[in-house]
Amino acid sequence: MNAFIVDRYKSKEGLHYGDMPEPTLQENDVLVQVHATSVNLLDSKIRDGEFKLILPYKLPLILGNDVAGVVVRVGAQVKHFKPGDEVYARPDKNRIGTFAEFISMNERDVATKPTTITMVEAASIPLVGLTAWQALVERANLQKGQKVLIHAGSGGVGTIAIQLAKHLGAFVATTTSTANVDLVKSLGADVVIDYKKDTFDTILRDYDVVLNSLDGETLEKSLRVLKPGGKLISISGPPDPAFARELGAPWFVRLVMYALSYTIRQKAKRRGVAYSFLFMKASGSQLAKITSLISSGAIRPVIDQVFPFEATKEALAYVESGRAKGKVVVQVR
């Protein structure tokens, strides 16, 4: 089958088009014909080897972390899907590979595609939707009336997180550039900080939760806007000891993560707030809950551009440029 492959980390060729064997089907797997996939910064980080300590992939590796498509075959033990079903998913971190014509996934990671949106729109949702859900619902336990700051509100995670937070009844602040102020307001943001004009940490105070997806400087400034007992959740690092334990990482990796996050954890402790790193997990059951929110109109996909399959490499370069509003989708079929 045709796919976009990484042969060697940080090579000049990087991601390239090639032929790979069709994935094998285990007894709890569904084989999905990929209709659309979307591009995430996670893809470029994996391509460059940034996660090789915690995600030791065997090369050559097919990239891609989002899929919408049609089930073509099922394993002997599959209970919830059959050939012909339209589905979407974020594959398990150890079984990525959606930049391809087919992907095999455990059925527990898959959900039925919302009927109210297209394959292209559905492909934009899983990774960012699950990230927002696991940060705001699972980790933060965000409640009605609480205040949350969502950084990079016009990005892939930000556009979904704003809508989810509003659905939960929270008061939402976000940071974005001048060009995207109207977009984040249309998604429900109550306070918009234009980072080209203002500094968020001099304006916002007494927030319950901050969701960070930006750099270390933004992470440290975010501590200042939280009230005692608040939660700082970062999806851009640094990874912390709790994540290392969750991974079952070897001792030297646990030591590295302890050291990397030591400063921010200590600063958070001094301010009476909690810091945690979130690396989202695949979950078909959580994705089904997100499906309900899409079907009811509480969450809508936000798509910047759609690229043809043969231009997957260009789509990744566009995402890396930082100019995308919402998601960038690749139409495979």
TrEMBL record:
SUPFAM superfamilies xref list: GroES-like, NAD(P)-binding Rossmann-fold domains
Keyword Metal-binding listed: no
Keywords for the protein's UniProt record, in alphabetical order: Oxidoreductase
Entries under InterPro entries matching the protein: ADH-like_N, ER, GroES-like_sf, NAD(P)-bd_dom_sf, Quin_OxRdtase/zeta-crystal_CS, YIM1/Zinc_Alcohol_DH_Fams
SMART domains cross-referenced by the UniProt entry: PKS_ER (SM00829)
Tree of life domain: Bacteria
Coiled coil (residue ranges): none
Ranges where the Enoyl reductase (ER) domain occurs: 10-330
Protein's name according to its UniProt entry: NADP-dependent oxidoreductase
